[in-house]
Amino acid sequence: MRLARAYGRAMWDARLVLAYTLLLSLTLFILAPFLMIALRSVGKGWFGRLWLPPQLTLDWYRWAVEVGNIPEVMKNTLIIGVIAVAVSTVIGIFAGWAFGRRQMPGKEVLMAIILLPRMIPPITYALGVAQIFYTLELVDTYLGVALAHVSVCAPYAILVLSATFEGLDERVLEAAGVCGANTIKRFFYVVLPLIMPGILASMIFSFTHSYNEFTLTLLTYGPHTVTLPVRTYLAVGDGYWEITSAMAMLMVVPSLLILAVIQRRAKPEKLVGGFKGV
Amino acid sequence: MTDVTIEFRDVSKRYGTLVANDHLSLAIRKGELMTLLGPSGCGKTTALRCLTGYIRPDEGRIFIDGQDVTDVPTHQRELGMVFQNFALFPHMTVQDNVGFPLMIRNLSKAERAQRVAQALRLVRLEGYESHYPRQLSGGQQQRVGLARALVYRPKVLLLDEPLSNLDAKLREEMRFEIKEVVTRLEITAVYVTHDQAEALALSDRVAIMNRGRLEQVGTPEEIYEHPQSRFVAEFIGLSNFLEGYVQAVDGDTMVVSVGGLQMRIPVLAEAGPGQRVLLFLRPNEVELLRPDDPGGANVFDARVEKVTYLGDTLDYRLTFGQGLTLRVQSDAQRRFGQGAPVRLRFPRVRCWAITGN
Question: What would the pLDDT profile of A32-67 be if each residue is shown by its tens digit?
């Protein structure tokens, strides 16, 4: 009897160990490339079969900033991101209202079309965008690159804000009306505060998508609008893995900051749904 | 007609082929609590929403205090409303929720605080000013809703199934609370519900609706004692209907032939011999007697088809006369088994009939 229990416990322990091992392996698998560039960006003389770099240095970061012109590139990336976020959010609010609160014919078809840029291979879509932008002379302008980004940011904004508007309780708006609030006061005192979490979520989503966007940028950028992902990609072509790794690390910093803010300040499920009714 | 506060004049509203309100005409007097009662889909909520201006009627006019408000937008109608799902502003504290109508009306902060405190005292929610709606129980939320609706002293208070989302015990408590507040403030109130017990307990008058039309308007007593149609009788909880025709009229009593039996019931003014009538009987108002008890007027032999034990009462399904069935509820002191012969007695004054087919 006691033996059976001991055996059971041992099996249970074994299972636990197995589970943890698998989980740890998966984590390592996901983190390995990241660790690789992190080490590469601070390592010196790291060749051959060495497990760890023999010397540490911050030289590659200095090189990245000076030669790679990272401050300028960062500025481009942020300006383009801000424009893309602004345009996407405005589109998202109007389209989200329509999708979330109105019954309209062809809703599903419209939604499918809006999601299209994300569904087809990015390079296909980017080629079309590039051709149009060359005609319109939008290539190598902040607005041009940002508008290209909007084609992938806006669908997220629309999705998030549709859900937010759908979650708005009709009766709460009616209550505000009965209380004496006209359309404008209803919007500012009731609708806006209630959809604010959704707007923030859509802004964060849009920004990260613009910030990370590569394919669309590659086909619409020019010497004045190099963004971080493109700059890093170009550095790969130059053949300096260390400098490229340093750039890649610099690029990750803002993403991690955003992630930290989301984790700390807001619950993701709250961001998407807004809070509903009661 | 000066004491009429709300008037529906020939109001119709259609959704496609569905007629939600069919030429509805109803006058609600100043200071009275009028209940719109009916099953779901009868048009009571549509009528209420026409009153708030949330829905515009296709035809007809709506008057509040003698003023035609049919084309006045909701926010200018000076109404107070309590919602089934409370519809509080989730991002505001109790204080701000109740103060919202005052803020919209640009009252000073001091005045606002004073009126909010007053309203919260009225619904016994002092001390909850800084709570958010999600931190309150259903009953407390609905009291906040009531305070918000009353705080700016509206002309009319509308209540849209305010108790449906509360549990049974609380519902009864809140029923009296609402009644008390409305009576104390002498405010005109329109109360929408599908719960007949609620309607009878609360209302000064009840308007029963069915398929967009008014079936009957009257005090709870009138509705309960003297329903004017089979629908009203059924809705108010009557379940025994017997069809028959008038054989003779004798002073204040008429003799009705029902399934080969003669029943003596109070006379109907408009009924002469030969008139078809419909008899209503409440299951708890028919007396059950032993088969050897003495007979007399309105006493008939019957047979128990089915008995259901309900705790404090027993529910019998009986057959009598020529193929008549009847539901009777009687206290559990006298018991009859299935198939047992019994006698029924219909108290003369408790029988209510209407003319018709």
Answer: 888 888 888 888 877 767 778 888 888 888 888 888
- Distance in Å, alpha carbon of B132 to nearest chain A alpha carbon: 10
CATH superfamily of B4-235: P-loop containing nucleotide triphosphate hydrolases (3.40.50.300)
- CB B280, CB B318: distance < 8 Å: no
Note whether B90 contacts A180, CB cutoff 8 Å: no
CATH of range B241-355; options 2.10.109.10, 2.40.50.140, 1.20.1250.40, 1.25.10.10: 2.40.50.140
- For residues B62 and B9, the answer to whether their CB atoms sit within 8 Å is yes
Domain span including residue A187: 70-273
Question: Model confidence over A123-151: pLDDT tens digits?
Answer: 888 899 999 999 998 889 999 999 999 99
| Per-residue pLDDT, B205 | 95
Distance from CA of A100 to the nearest CA of B (A): 19
Q: What is the per-residue pLDDT for A175? A: 94
Question: pLDDT tens, B211-265?
Answer: 999 999 999 999 988 888 889 988 887 778 888 889 888 888 888 888 888 888 8
Pairwise CA distance, residues B235 & B216, whole Å: 11
pLDDT at B337 over 90: no
Mutate to test the interface with A, among B49, B51, B72, B85 (most CBs of A within 10 A): B85
Strand segments (E) across chain B = 4-15, 18-29, 33-37, 59-64, 67-68, 79-82, 156-160, 188-193, 205-210, 213-218, 240-250, 253-258, 261-266, 276-281, 287-289, 299-309, 313-320, 324-331, 341-345, 352-355
pLDDT digit string, tens, across residues A58-103: 888 888 888 888 889 999 999 999 999 999 999 999 999 988 888 8
How much is the pLDDT for A272? Answer: 45
Residues of A at the B interface, defined by Cβ within 8 angstroms: 169, 171-172, 174-182, 185, 189-190, 193-194, 275-278
DSSP one-letter string for B154-183:
-SEEEEESTTTTS-HHHHHHHHHHHHHHHH
- State the smallest CA–CA distance between residue A212 and chain B in angstroms: 34
Q: CB pairs below 8 Å between A and B: how many?
A: 78
For B350, phi then psi, to 5°, come to: -85, -5
Helix (H, G, I), strand (E, B) or coil at B208: strand
Q: What percent of chain A has pLDDT over 70?
A: 95
Q: What is the mean pLDDT of chain A?
A: 86
